[in-house]
Amino acid sequence: MSNYENNYSENSFWEKLKKHAIEAGKKVVYSALLAFYAIENPNVPLKDKMKIYGALGYLILPFDLVPDFIPVVGYGDDLAALLFVLGTIANHLDNDVKQKAVNKMKEWFGELDRGDQEIIEIDAKIVDVEKGMDGMASTKQLTED
């Protein structure tokens, strides 16, 4: 991700999301908003913020591994990058970060019900990535002992 953080700017982020929210879909938008609002969290270490900037910079670029204009799959790589980063910083995605993301989603997509399946799926995937990262760290620790 480190090659992409230079492509990030707050203005470009908001411009991209506002312009492409519907075609990108709720999963990508919610993930991007979680990442954006996590940057504002003073408890997120700088090294983790750099990861977030990289993932958001990747999202902003229209021509990446899978160009965004390709129907159905265009934002899949962006979502994967966002989920990976969100999984690594999951402990910093507190209720304040999540509420800000949901509030912005309501502005763009209208009222969301408490059981919005796409948001629930993203939250679950973040936990899965976090568990996978913890598992990798545990395995690494065992092999080092």
From TrEMBL:
Residues 49-84 form the DUF1232 domain. Keywords: Membrane, Transmembrane, Transmembrane helix. Its main location: membrane. It is found in: Endomembrane system. It comes from the Bacteria. The keyword Transmembrane helix applies. Pfam families: DUF1232 (PF06803). GO terms for cellular component: endomembrane system. It is a multi-pass membrane protein. This is DUF1232 domain-containing protein.
